[in-house]
Amino acid sequence: MTRTGRSMPTVVTEATHESGVIKSAPAAPGRGRPPRVGRLAAACARLSDWTLIAGPLVTLAVMLWGIGARPYWGDEADTVSAVSRSLPQLFRLLRHIDAVHGLYYVLLWAVARLAGTGELATRLPSAAAMAAAAAGVAAIARRLGSRRAGLYAGLMFAVLPTVTQQGHDARPYAAVTAAAVLASYLLVRAAQDPRWRWFAAYGIALVLVGYLQLFGLLLLPAHAVTLAGLGHGRRAGGDGRPAGPGGRPRPLLLRRWLATVAAVALAAAPAAVMGWVQRAQIAWIPRPGWGDLGSLVATLAAASAPAAVVIGLLGVLGGFRAGAAARAGAAGWGLTWLALPWLVLPPLILLAVSAITPVYFGRYVTFCLPAVALLAGTGLAALRWPNGAGALALVVVLVAPAQLAMRAQGGGMQMVGQFLSVHRRPGDAIVYPEPSIPPWYLAYPEGFGQLRDLSMGRTPAAAGTLFGIAVSLPVLKRREESVRRIWIVPLTGRNPAAYLAPRFRLAHEWKLRGYQPVLLYTKTS
Hints:
- By secondary structure, the chain is an alpha+beta fold.
- Helices cover 57% and strands 7% of the residues.
- The chain is built from 21 helices and ten strands.
- It has helices at 36-47, 50-64, 74-83, 87-94, 102-115, 119-144, 147-159, 161-167, 173-192, 196-212, 219-229, 250-277, 290-300, 305-328, 335-354, 369-382, 385-405, 412-423, 440-443, 460-463, 473-480; strands at 10-12, 24-26, 429-430, 436-437, 452-453, 456-458, 468-470, 485-488, 504-512, 516-523.
- Helix 7 packs across helix 16 (369-382).
- It is elongated and about 85 Å long.
């Protein structure tokens, strides 16, 4: 029973845009909540509300548009390497590297068994995750604002360029974004109705966040600020204590949240330990400078300054409007208290820690993108109908160049693989002038995989690594005596000739798209 100083129980109903508060209506006498049939009907009505489904549908359409246009990049090739092996071999890999991505690899391993390792198959889960995140963003904005805010927030999320970038990426950052949205939505539900079932669901969502991306648990300090902000401007409960949303006493809410956080910390401890043990794999991250603040804005807003300015102004408008609405309510919930800490705290914490040991990288704060959509969407909803639609159209126009650029056809190692598949001859071989063998033959088997790999000593699966292990130089040169043509695709500054037997000479060099060299060496008689 909600403690509001009255004995009659209450039922939470939809939040209004005008007040920004959660309304409560008297329940039927003798009942603590509506009948199961009534709740089911209400849930079906919400699911059929076009203002809730427009955002996720548009997001899914945007994600599917050109999803296979960009070639795999290095980290995606690592994903392909991880999921191309047996499950025991995958677990062996995780003992050495990428344990923090273990859950994502296992989930994508199942996808690869069903659909293969092409760009569409491996990126589709990320696209679906971004659509799910858009649904959660719309649901949060509607619950804390209005139907119009839910609509605009979902659509704003769909057009953000970084959402597309990560939705077109076979990496875990879209999945952790969806999990962060789920956790934030469940926090809202738990704050409105702090029964243990909501906190249990919230805790499970946070554990999912932690196992998809350990840094995603920086959402917890943001949620702590959110809950702390609920005490401002609240009327007291029946016992004189400050009340939370819906009149719930804040001490009860905070106690249960702290208990949930303790359980989450215990459950996520193995991921944290493995992340610490394998911390050397992020040793390449440079110490951040002032330029990283600009890249942070580009990550969280848009790829162009005009788009960032417009989205930023809409976010400021949405934050002030939601904050003002919350201050006007006796037991209100301000969307600003949820979105602003979510947007600001995780990047700032990573940047601050990076002053001691570099851990900040732009992709690591992808899960903060929903906060941008919540604030900017609320800002759009604050405008009158034609102005709001016009502002959204302006954002679409401003981000269009970035959206189109991410769908440029071909390029990279995909283009090299296509070139090799056309120009190779039976008996041709390939040599990698590096101590390890990148898994391009797994990512693009139609080109790289059709050539005999003379460098390979142990495959990635056999070695328990993401890359294959090369043979020694004397062994490599003995192998080269059995072929007449050797292809080399230089990926580093190493001299390819040093890896070839004496009788091989450069026969031809191609520059694909003006930058990627492909070398063909032939044996002289």
